[in-house]
Amino acid sequence: MTDLYVSMTGSDGNNGSQNAPFATILAASQHAQSGTTIHVAPGTYQGGFTTTANGTAAAHITYVSDTQWGAKIVGGPVTNSAAAGWWNQGNYVDVKGFEIDGSNAQAAANWQYGFYDSGSHDTFQNGSVHDILRDITAFNKAEAAAMGGAAIEMDSYAGGVDGSVIGNLAYNIGPDGLHSDHTQGIYQSETGVIRNNIIYNVVGDGIVTWHAAQNINISNNTIDNARDAGIVVGSGDSGSSSTTGDYINTNNNIVVNSANGIVENGITGIHNTYVDNLVYGVQGSIVRLQNGLRDVGTVQADPMFVNAAGHDYHLRAGSPAINAGTASGAPATDFDGNARPQGGAFDIGAYEFTSSSTPPPAPPPTAPPPVVTPDTLVLLLSEDRYRGDAQFIAKIDGTKIAGPTAATVLHSSGQSQTFTYNGLWGPGHHDLEIDFINDRYAGPGKDRNLYVDQVRYDGASYLSHTDALRTNGAIHIPIGN
To answer: Among 287, 264, 260, 284, which residue's Cα sits nearest to residue 275?
Structure first.
């Protein structure tokens, strides 16, 4: 077993001397062997690197920030086009205690992931990953490619198995106020565990399983403000089969203030379990499962956080999450390292209530009425003109919001005409209907048509290709979250 060191004052030309520190994590990793621990001193280190060193089952390679969150990984020069702050390809690797910060301009231009892992038997633990894909240009680029990103991803695409995501803080993932199906807090397609993580303010799902996902334990996580769903369990696309999306246990998790609570999607099996989760303040489904499965012991009550607005998710005395969890799959410690259980049973969420926990604060002053923000629908349309312009009517959930209105920009110009409408259509899914009402045809080159080139609703895009209406009729486009 050996120890290597990294510091801001180190040198990558030390030829692997055990006592002389390296300047970069990458250089130290190139000298690592089975059983090596790489100690990283507090400081700011350039991200966008890939580590490939392998440990063994008996002797992992460990990267550790000697002070938790003291070693910060940030974006490098704009010439560094890496898609992740840190990509680990090695097997039997543990990464502990690092902060990965994607807030600076260089990182925002490229990073889709904070920490990305494609190896096997790896752990990302006690880290802080934040401000990934906050840049709207980078976010839109990733969304347009249907790629998205994540704070933390354990990926099975290269054959990786047994990935663990434990005790991490992930927040500010994606731009504020938008919704995404592709950018998540934690994305797992390997077997493994997702435990004791805190996730808040994420543009998509808090936690999602997909591709070949199976045999995963999702327990004692706390998720706040996921603008798709708190937890999505499922499998699909490359790597999936009739047996994936199964043997996934989702227990003791808290989901609050999210579009949906805990849902299954895609291919799922009959052996998944959902026990003693707390879901509160969601706009859509509390728990939505497939194959006739039923959740057990779901709590629908305010978890009584110490200070939710300040992102302190410790439990106050009297919280309905205290002693309400199951021992099945529960970790032995909580986010703070306190032993579980402290009382008669395990608590729900990332924190175990202790006798030294903060007492309930005084009731807050009466809050002002919430600010209601109008929804915005943007249509990008064009036409083939023949003896007059193409006209349309637009409806949301069957109610007309516009029209008859003429599109006057020719499709052959490669341009679109923008129509913007505001209204209070509310959260959830909506049906957008666009009716073409005055088709005319008199032979080749004498044809009036309407083209729907793009649809945006509250900043999110809902059309990946142009829809052409060549005869009178309607198209229906699902919008909203």
So the answer is: 287
Which residue carries 């080749």 as its tokens? Answer: 444
- Three-state secondary structure along 65-86? ECCCCCEEEECCCCCCCCCEEE
Q: Can you say how many angstroms the Cα of residue 204 is from the centroid of all Cα atoms in its chain?
A: 5
Task: Find the helix or strand (DSSP H, E) in which 29 lies.
Answer: helix 25-29
Average pLDDT along the chain: 91
Q: Which residues contact 27 (CB under 8 A, 6 or more apart)?
A: 6, 12
pTM for this entry: 0.74
* Residue range 154-185, pLDDT digits in tens: 999 999 999 999 999 999 999 998 888 899 99
Residue with tokens 């989702």: 250
Q: How far apart are CA 175 and CA 287, in angstroms?
A: 26
* Residue from 66, 42, 47, 2 nearest 16 by CA: 2
Q: Which of 350, 417, 41, 45 is nearest to 194 (CA)?
A: 350
Rounded Cα–Cα distance for residues 253 and 85 (Å): 28
Neighbours of 79 (CB within 10 A): 8
DSSP state letters, 200-218: EEESS-SEEE-BT--SEEE
Helix, strand or coil, per DSSP, at residue 179 = coil
Window from 235-249, 341-355, 413-427 with minimum mean pLDDT: 413-427
Q: Which of 453, 387, 450, 441 is nearest to 416 (CA)?
A: 453
Residue 32: both structure tokens together: 């690592």
Query: Could you give the C-alpha distances from 269 to 172, 193, 333, in angstroms and in order?
Result: 32, 18, 30
Residue corresponding to tokens 């797992």? 188
pLDDT for 334 equals 97
Q: Which two tokens stand for residue 399?
A: 């109610």
Alpha carbon distance, N-terminus to C-terminus of the chain: 51
